[in-house]
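Q:
Just now I want nothing more than another pair of eyes on a protein record. Here is the record:
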Amino acid sequence: MSPVIEITDLSRRYGSSRALDGVDLSVDEGVICGLLGRNGAGKTTLMACVAGQERPSGGAVRVFGREPADHADVLSRVSFVRDSQRYPDGFRLKHVLSVAPAFHRGWDAALARDLAAALRVPEKTDLKKMSRGQLSAASIVIGMASRAPLTIFDEPYLGLDATARQLFYDRLLADYSAHPRTILLSTHLIDEMEALLERVVVLDEGRVRLDSDVDEARASAYQVAGTASAVDRFAVGRRLLSQHAVGGLKTAVVDGATDRTTRADAASAGVELSGVSLQQVVAALGSRDTELEGATS
């Protein structure tokens, strides 16, 4: 089975600024993949290249085996939901719902109506006059009801309250279970959305820093805590992803998995080890303190 998304040595430049730099990525069919990283990491640019809305400056992007920007049959199988979507003047949700079947062969009108009602999206309000939350909800309706084999959500929750976000997560997971497809979504609300994700890709400064399934990502690092001097002793020879000191205490996120030697060294140094959340891993990878050398006591 060929991957849905194949990216090889992708770069994207805007003048002298490089948004993507040597990205290699492959995403299989039927996976929910989270695209994570700080603002400006290149997430939206990568999604736009996959959706055929941006052309690479270098490298290659293939979706369903073809370059998306040059093949209408590929674009008909892709739905890209972004909060900056532009609509014609006077366009309302009811207009979008009426024309959507022409762009998405798998369009589910009943699902669209149900989601619009559940998320309280006003069908008769001009899309350009909607609040940010209403526009995000409308975008969610379009993306989910498209039933596109590749559905891309770029921070779809912006402006939504906690209740609406949870409704989106629940509906997305239920619909994905009933109608599997490949879903690529970016988010900063990692703790909220972690349960949805099967795989994560972390971008930083246009490069892939981590590409793994969620369990492997969490197991790729651990936290050490104790007095600053004890943590420094333990850190000798180890790669620190981040560290934070308050008074005489220090915590650090350490690259790698724990084993018997790690636990013995921790006991000897007088520090405590604990697991890390996906949020902590992503934050550490995007930290300016990333790849600190272990302290030399």
